[in-house]
Amino acid sequence: MILELADIRIHPGQNAAFEEAIQRGLATVIGSTKGFQGYTVNRGIESPERYVLQIFWNTLEDHTVGFRQSEAFTQWRAIVGPFFAGPPTVEHFELLAKSA
Predict the structure, then answer these.
(1) Is the dihedral of CA 11, 15, 17, 18 positive or negative?
(2) Which residues pair with 53 in a beta bridge?
(3) In the chain, N or C: fewer CB atoms in 10 Å?
(4) 25-62, pLDDT tens digit by residue?
């Protein structure tokens, strides 16, 4: 399993609208993408315009090719992109250890 970690910063005062949009985008677009396994969304306490999105994929290619090179990515960015204060930082991780 691959973890995609996206560090997102939004424009101030847009939290409620962004939170609705990201949940809608995850449910309607990403949730039906091949290789998608689940997600978490966390909002910063000290920096409430900062969000950390974690998406779990079967393989790296499920994200980088299957999703990023599809029409679904365009749909996703149309939903959440207007809220971004700048491009998100996105990195991928491999699972090394997990608690029970």
Answers:
(1) positive
(2) 6, 41
(3) C
(4) 999 999 999 999 999 999 999 999 999 999 999 999 99
Strand order of the sheet with strand 89-94? 36-43, 50-57, 2-9, 89-94
pLDDT per position as a tens digit, 69-93: 999 999 999 999 999 999 999 999 9
DSSP states along 17-53 = HHHHHHHHHHHHTGGGSTTEEEEEEEE-SSSTTEEEE
**Angle in degrees, 0-180, between the axes of helices 71-80 and 15-28, rounded to the nearest 10:** 160
Tokens 């939004």 sit on residue: 10
